[in-house]
Please model this.
Amino acid sequence: MKAVVYKGPNEVQIEEVQDPRIEQPTDVIVRITSTAICGSDLHMYEGRTMAEPGIVFGHENMGVVEEVGSGVVSVKKGDRVVMPFNIACGFCRNCLDGKTGFCITVNPGFAGGAYGYVGMGPYMGGQAEYLRVPFADFNCLQLPKGDEHEDDFAMLADIFPTGYHSTQLAGVSPGDTVAVYGAGPVGLMAAYSAVLRGASKVFVVDRVPNRLRVAEEIGAIPIDFTKGSAPEQIVDQTDGGVDRGIDAVGYQATVPEGEEQPATVLNDLIETVRPTGSLGVVGLYVPKDPGGPSEDARNGKLVISIGRFFEKGLRMGTGQANVKAYNRHLRDLIIAGRAEPSFVVSQRRPLEDAPDAYVRFDRREEGYTKVLLKP
Model:
């Protein structure tokens, strides 16, 4: 089959790779109909992780079941399904607690597994024609047959639940004021989720005009951090700061001059959120960053204003989304017409166009807010 294969920093190619096969009775094989390029893929694409050449990318996947293992009960051939990016067993301690992003079964020696991602187990990604799904009864979310809401449902694999997870970590409640740093796909989903949860005012901080424009279209207040201190701009428009803050940027954060300062968003959030408020951090931070701007940064150690954090009595929740905790409810909101996360999708391109799409998405080009690939 054809697949997107990582060749080295800033290079992917379409190559013929071995078709996936049923390896365990609980597996299914899914024919991919939509797969997305994620901002998290760019960390590997840019050589900012320990990823080795040869990885098949793709953790945002949906499609139609083509083959079913003998131990699968609820999933049938022909079912339309979307898979959480985090692979989970459904029966370990963390899965039973609903923390499926930290399954301790699927990736021995590490809490968490995923498709096509460095350090997340031996699982091929879905930027390909077919995908093997382990523990399929647990990992496949059933969708209505046909092709209705295709782009919306594709967002259920990662960015919609991740954006929603950030609001859960931050504790967003009706009437709260919220600041989201980062207007990439996850940041836009975080802002959208805050609106869905009844936030009274949502600020979105970025420097890319077309991303800020999309944020404004969903009812958020855009903040361009190149035009003055983002915390000051937001505090001036609130009663001493927002109730909740969300980091949707992570360790490749930059200051207005363009210099990379990995802790800058965390420190800005500490100044943006009012005393006793809370932070939700879903922007990626890694223990090893080969391209970090300092020795500490290269080893995942950042200097944050812990004194101010403590002084203000702030709280912080972190970590990747437990997609299974949210995807069924978010699917039902889509079906009911209450949510339409596909507003973020700006490109639908054939799988063969992936190398060009990666280049353009990495440059944050106009019209490349979110890219769907169609095998």
